[in-house]
Amino acid sequence: xxxxxxxxxxxxMGDEGFELTEDMTDADMVILNTCHIREKAAEKVYSELGxxxxxxxxxxxxxxxxxxxxxxxxxxAEGEEIIRRAPVVDMVVGPQSYQNLPExxxxxxxxxxxxxxxxxxxxxxxxxxxxxxxSSPSSFVTVQEGCDKxxxxxxxxxxxxxxxxxxxxxxxEDAKRLVDQGVKxxxxxxxxxxxxxxxxxxGKDHSLAALLETxxxxxxxxxxxxxxxxxxxxxxxxxxxxxxxxxxxxxxHLPFQSGSNRILKAMNRRHTREHYIKLVARIREARxxxxxxxxxxxxxxxxxxxxxxxxxxLVDRIGYASAYxxxxxxxxxxxxxxxxxxxxxxxxxxxxxLLQKRLTSQxxxxxxxxxxxxxxxxxxxxxxxxxxxxxxxxxxxxVHVEVEHAKIxxxxxxxxxxxxxxxxxxxxxxxxxxxxxxELKTLESNQPA
Length: 449
Ligand code: SAH
Ligand code: SF4
Hints:
This protein is an alpha/beta fold. It has helices at residues 2-15, 39-61, 73-78, 80-85, 101-111, 125-128, 156-159, 168-180, 208-216, 236-244, 261-266, 273-286, 305-318, 345-368, 441-446; strands spanning 29-34, 67-72, 91-93, 115-117, 138-142, 144-145, 164-165, 185-189, 198-199, 205-206, 223-227, 251-253, 291-298, 322-327, 374-382, 388-392, 398-402, 411-419, 423-428.
């Protein structure tokens, strides 16, 4: 979602006459879009601001000014504190108010005083962001934001605010605009995307499955994905969609966080390991080749060796194509941060290493299981050398293909020849006819060299 937000900020500032630059010493304005989910991410902001300050000082010597803005969830959570710790910062803008960046910049230019905007304004943020542009044949669209679930470790409900679903018509408008620019794959984004319940044109609330159905009817859309889902919001119609909607890709990110019911309860996850196991069985029945991914936290306060074993056991039972795993990070203001039995950092480190070893081996096996199979790949970017293009398999694996007559945006049929931990190697099938042949001038010119 931060990638999506950063692209929208670039669009907004583009309308004000700014252009993107890769080189900070060239920049009249630097915006750091930040993440507050774990302490490490939040602290990185301050080391990065050190670099920004040096660049600003160098530019000042040559008579040029640099405006420095901090956006995202660290801005939301720390507000004024950021300017106290890093006086180089001119503007602090939360994730629900970045649509006002141009006005805030105007305010700063007029007053010369730091501007702090961390409200959750009533106005529809997305109305102001209309005019999405594509940077790849695979594009993100935010359909839902915020969260009302309050897992005890998590800052999202505080930084992104309460749950909100965009109306179907607005999403459809974005999708059409993206298709017109050559986009073939949409990934619908939301902190709790499967809790989606946006207003349809009939005035009723539509589920995520209904939204996926509507989008799959759009000419030009070849693939649909969504992330991130909560196990408790995995309704029957969404499970059925994995069986019935051929444009919905066989991939699902379904975090379980812990395999121990005791810890799940303390996390306020409101699901059990048994519920999760049954749910996965039902989804796999609907779509047997589904690639499953997850999020796992180790070292949540009070986690014992046995609780951790329960997590390892759940990983073994389910089997993942990929996964994100983290050491629990205490976040100010969340209930778990107050817990007395914080787990020793060294224990967390050891548990994470054990878990990641298991997950890595599952990921490698999953990739290897595809060797010899045929599948369709959407080509998304240039590879390391001439003639090589990189795309995605239906299972979201990165696929490297040597091709002469295909280009970014083409969908080609390939045979998988090799697999590593992080990617597949493939050759194009002699019979492969490109599924669609839209001209992708806009996209190609947006690709970094
Ligand atoms: N809404 C999603 C997750 C959003 S946050 C869900 O409920 O699954 C992304 C991931 O960051 C979480 O799934 C969790 O695994 C991790 N995370 C969140 N807060 C954390 C914390 N305090 N310490 C460690 N990991 C955390
Ligand atoms: Fe955070 Fe996800 Fe829990 Fe919401 S459901 S509080 S975003 S971990």
